[in-house]
Design a protein that fits this description.
This protein is of the alpha+beta class. Helix content is 27%, strand content 50%.
Length: 143
Amino acid sequence: MSAADRVAVHDLLVGYFDGFDQRRSDDAFLRETFTADAHWRFPRGDATGIEEIMERRDGTLGLWKRTLHSVSSVLIELDGDRARFTATLLATHIHRDDDPGAPLHIGGRLTGEAARSDAAWRLRRLGLDLVWTDGDPPERDFA
C-alpha cells in the first residue's frame, strides 16, 4: 500500500481518458491499460474482455470529431494487489462535420477496480454513471 501504487492507479485511470482524447486506436495501449477479463460499463453500452473493449473503442472514437476529458477527485482504496477507486469525470464531445449538433458536455461518477500483476497495474472494472448532460448526443450508435 505504497504512495507509488496510488500514483500508478491514478495515472492509469487518467491515462485511459487522455489516450481517448489523443484518439489512440492501437490495441497495445488498451492491453497495457485493461486486464484481459476487464469489464467496461458506460451509458452507451457494456463490454467484457479486452477484445470487446477494443471493438467498443473503435466505435466510440468514430462518434466524435474531438473530445476532452477531465478526471478529478480520484479516491483510491488499496487492498494488496487490488485497488478500488472513484472519481469525477467532466467531458466535452465535439460532433463530426457530418453529424452537426451542440457539443455534448457530461458530468459523471467513475467507479472501478484495478489489479496488479507482474508488477504492473491494469484496470479490471471501469464504469461511468452520468450525473448530468447538456448538448446533443450523436445521431448514430457505435459503428
